[in-house]
Amino acid sequence: MENKTQTSNHQHQSKWTLRNIILIALIAIFCGIIFWGIGFLYTALTVALTPIGAAPFANDILMGLWCMAGPLTGFLIRTAGSAFLGEFLGAAVEVFLGGQWGAGAFISGLVQGVGSELGFTLTGYKRYDWVSLNASILTTVIVTFAWDMYKNGYNKFALPLLIGLFVTRYISTFIFGGILTKMIVKLLDRSNAFSL
Amino acid sequence: MNPGMKLLLVVLIALEISFTQSLIVNVILIAVSFAYVMVKRMNFKTLFLLVFWPLFPALGLFVSQWLYGSAGIHFAWVLFTRIYAYVFLGATFTLTSSITDLSLTLEQDFRLPSKFAYGVLAAFNLMPKIREEVQIIKTSALMRGEVFHVWSPRLYFKAILSSIQWSQNLAEAMTSHGFVEDEPRTHYKVIRITALDWTVFIVLLIAVQVMLFLIRY
């Protein structure tokens, strides 16, 4: 699986080249399709947790996976907006694959995209390391959680349950958006397939 | 209706019902969307799946809100119907519009730069191939005695390698077919937003506002 990446392409003014746009979209679609495969896992978790009223935990346990495309594309194509586009398109794929969210996925995609993007904005698109990745994780968790306060009615829950959900979401996002993303980037870096 | 306008309308309404709590409006939206989908395209298998899969998250939200929520059974029903409203609103778009038309109108009428419209479209058209590629990556790993899960970094690594290669190929192919970034283009298929589109858009949006304002239950 060798490839001929043109490192010389990167000196050009804007990073929003046709190639990079297609690359972001392709990575987003790959992620969307990989996650779509675990739709049954989400459903199974929901079914298992519904009798005790803990179904929202299924959402929060898997949140990190759904928010992976953002940090990945944001880290690979280092320019403003790439994390947003990647995350949004990843969610849009689910809509077209016929996921169980319908129009909700578009909005979730917008919200998650803003969440992922903000982290890189906070670090000024200057540094791409463990710090900016963690900033992105933090903003993703806060923004998506604020959204679920309304959309999924979290604001009607008592504080202990809210804290439980928040911590679950943070751990999930940290594992998938943080540790897993870092491992993937390391593999890419070592392979010299892509000049980061 | 123009696909771009339709998508905008659907997303706006979905956004609005996320913040409002009217059970009746949710049900009306579901009924109207359902009728629209039925008129446009009768496919019972698709319809069945549309009703079946969201049942789990909807029921899950309902039960947890019922047991632990402070807002009572009415709000639990609002959340239940909200999930279905999203799904059927979304279906009015996905079941009746094509991605190609959407990106054409986004480029021609919504001033999206052509490299985004055609770049993303090109990638979306590879969707069947991408599905295949995910299978190939998993299968070839199995042949080496490795099992790839959603948490395996190597699965994503290989997917990204394919993406890098394909994006290069696609971009080159588009360039060799005469696509020039940031240059004005002429269009073989012209999509316009008509007066009718605007009328439908505004009337429906106002109707939703009026309903949300009047129907509080």
TrEMBL record, chain A:
Annotated TM spans? 21-45, 57-77, 131-150, 157-180
Is Membrane among the key words of this record?
yes
Highest taxon of source: Bacteria
Q: Could you list this entry's UniProt keywords, alphabetically sorted.
A: Membrane, Transmembrane, Transmembrane helix
Name the InterPro entries for this protein.
Answer: ABC_thiamin-permease_prd
Q: Is Transcription regulation included in the keywords of this UniProt record? A: no
Q: What is this protein called?
A: Substrate-specific component YkoE
Automatic annotation (TrEMBL), chain B:
Name it: Transmembrane
Which residue spans traverse the membrane?
6-39, 46-68, 74-95, 195-215
Bilayer topology annotation: Multi-pass membrane protein
Q: Name one Pfam family in it.
A: CbiQ
Q: What is its main location?
A: membrane
Sorted alphabetically, the Gene Ontology cellular component annotations on this record are: plasma membrane
What keywords is this UniProt entry annotated with?
Membrane, Transmembrane, Transmembrane helix
Q: Which InterPro entries has this protein been placed in?
A: ABC/ECF_trnsptr_transmembrane
Q: What is the lineage of its organism?
A: Bacteria, Bacillati, Bacillota, Bacilli, Lactobacillales
Question: Where in or outside the cell?
Answer: Membrane
